[in-house]
Amino acid sequence: MSAKFKLDMKKRPRRLRKGESVLGLCQETHVSPSDLILPVFVKEGSGADEIESMPGVFRHSEDSLLKLCEKALSKGVRAIAPFPLVDASLKNERADESFNPKSTANMAIKSVKKRFPEITVFADIALDPYTSHGHDGVLDNTGTWLINDETVEILCKMALSAAEAGADFVAPSDMMDGRIGAIRSHLDANGLEETGIMAYSAKYASALYGPFRDAIGSAPKGGPKKYLDKRGYQLNPANAREALREAALDEEEGADILMVKPASFYLDIISKLKSASNLPIAAYQVSGEYSMILAAAQNGWIDLERAKQESLLAIKRAGADIILSYFAV
Length: 329
Ligand code: PBG
What we know:
- About 35% of the residues lie in helices and about 15% in strands.
- By secondary structure, it is α/β, with parallel strands linked by helices.
- It has an 8-stranded parallel beta barrel, surrounded by 8 helices.
- Strand 8, helix 9 (about 265-275) and strand 9 form a beta-alpha-beta unit.
- The relative contact order is 0.13.
- The model has no long low-confidence stretch (mean pLDDT about 95).
- Bound molecules: ligand PBG.
- Ligand PBG binds next to helix 6.
- The site of ligand PBG has 13 residues, from helix 6.
């Protein structure tokens, strides 16, 4: 009886899922290595050490970083974003090391651009690796609030030092008000009008940055009450319209690329920004997103390769043109 049973139906969507060839022809979204930016951790000294909470991700010395870049290029990945591990002795309340032309980050930028001029380097602009308290700016005397404009002044110096070191784009990840316009003017005034700005426009106060803060030792210090946590500047995960407002301001102030961070929990924000702006949209699949997938795979609970591909595809499908991902290489 079941053999004879036929639905009277003209439209059968499964016709488009009949075998690899048809599936391939009908695939709407692709992730290609040229879409990706590889975030890299850099350190002084020699060799590379693995980050405990990010299996397979290392802090690289200069040699090891150059080898990684070579590997990235061989896989078609042509962009990196360095983040430095800064020695505690160089950190202070005002992040003076952040604009040292010879900082670990600036030296890494110089050496990558010298050896591989074809790699696009995105320099992170934020004070958290350099402040003794781990916040992205200068604290006021209550210790609970960042002084916006003084922080922006330091960010401008930091952006100029990174641009002078050879960064193709500076990428402010601090969430201070007005920093995109101020950095744009400062770069222009110094003859660096060709250096681009990728703005972390919608950067959420997320629980997913934990492994990154382990990697560079930037977790805010001082106990839960003394300092306000990063919700005094990063966005509230409950909000979407606020992200659109931030992105509109960044675009007006001269940003070249807008970014959403984290990515997977914020696909709706990626999609909304894509409709709201004609700028390229980047999304950062952050450390916690990487580590969650890796930990489940290490337990044998999910398939690493498939979960990785699916996570990147989802971010692309939501509207991201560019993805920062620790999976890039
Ligand atoms: C802050 C900054 C963060 C990350 C990069 N730069 C977040 C934070 O510590 O608040 C996180 C990236 C990641 O988790 O992969 N300027």
